[in-house]
Design goal:
Length: 317
């Protein structure tokens, strides 16, 4: 299976994984089990997705049936914004591991560089963006405190690798100034409408692996009513034309546009045939002119921006 080798640990992270965002609780265990059964080895979850227990049930079933061993899987999860204080990082990571039913995460990411007021998991979990009053409550926890606690998870064997998500270059460079354990992976929104060329150049220079989310652009946000009416990349003339030349699906073309550059992808599908189809995207090899043609669609369209929730959360300003 095609993989990217993480710099610090030498661990191999599969280039094509299965994303758990928006996978419903009722279907999650079966979906994860089926994904593993057809060959997925990277599972990308988060505390905020609210389905870690069910995802863990799918993993457990696959292990019990002898389809995989735990060490065959690369399981990613993420620290939510309300748990950035040192002790909260430690406590919630234990809870998340317990929900999954595993002893360690292969990768644990800081979901957003945003610290929100603590919400006791016994009161509400996942806590999401808003307090009980429906408002956003910030908390003054610096990233250095959060990162120090993340490093302790590595020391304790609870996370093999740690990383960042939704961070731009200035913050990555700042973390590197004090990091004892450097971030191994950066997960960001990345698709042909948002190519993030400068950020990718920086991560390549620093030896930080990149995982792209929302590889299909607006399509990922249609069911949330957040696509903004932008034209679908899956139906774009450029994508369709290239797909037809290679006897491939538009989804495979969009995924391969990333993986051909060593960028991991984490598409989600509830459709069994598309699950298999997405996993086979690395069998496709795009020509240089095709890669450039896809990249030329860039319009810096960012679909996941916390500033849309509250202007004080403008981390991409």
């Amino acid at each position: 299976m095609a993989a990217v080798v993480l710099k610090r640990t030498g661990q191999k992270m599969p280039l094509v994984g299965f994303g758990l965002w928006k996978v419903t609780k009722s279907t999650c265990a079966d979906t994860v089990y089926n994904a593993i059964k057809v060959g997925y080895r990277l599972l990308d979850g988060a505390g905020d997705y609210g389905n870690e227990k069910e995802a863990g049930e799918g993993v457990r079933r696959a292990i019990q049936e002898g389809i995989v061993k735990r060490e065959d899987l690369f399981i990613t999860s993420k620290l939510w914004n309300t748990f950035h204080a040192h002790d909260h990082v430690k406590d919630i990571s234990k809870k998340q591991l317990d929900l999954w039913g595993i002893d360690y995460f292969d990768l644990f990411l800081v979901h957003f560089p945003i610290a929100l007021q603590y919400v006791d998991p016994a009161h509400r979990y996942p806590p999401e963006w808003f307090g009980d009053d429906g408002k956003v409550h910030l908390q003054n926890t610096p990233m250095q405190e959060t990162w120090g606690a993340m490093e302790e998870l590595v020391d304790e064997g609870k996370a093999k690798n740690i990383g960042l998500s939704n961070c731009n270059g200035s913050l990555i460079l700042d973390v590197l100034r004090y990091a004892r354990v450097s971030p191994q992976v950066l997960q960001v929104e990345l698709h042909p409408y948002l190519t993030q060329d400068a950020l990718i150049k920086l991560t390549n220079t620093l030896g930080i692996a990149v995982t792209a989310y929302s590889s299909f652009g607006p399509q990922s946000y249609v069911e949330l009513g957040m696509d903004g009416g932008h034209p679908s990349l899956l139906e774009h003339d450029v994508t369709i034309s290239i797909a037809e030349k290679h006897n491939a699906s538009p989804a495979q073309v969009l995924l391969r546009w990333a993986t051909q550059r060593g960028i991991a992808v984490i598409p989600k599908s509830n459709n069994f045939e598309r699950l298999i189809e997405n996993l086979k995207c690395n069998g496709l090899n795009l020509h240089d002119d095709e890669m450039k043609s896809i990249s030329s669609l860039n319009s810096n369209l960012r679909l996941n921006d916390p500033a849309d929730i509250d202007p004080r959360l403008a981390i991409f300003a």
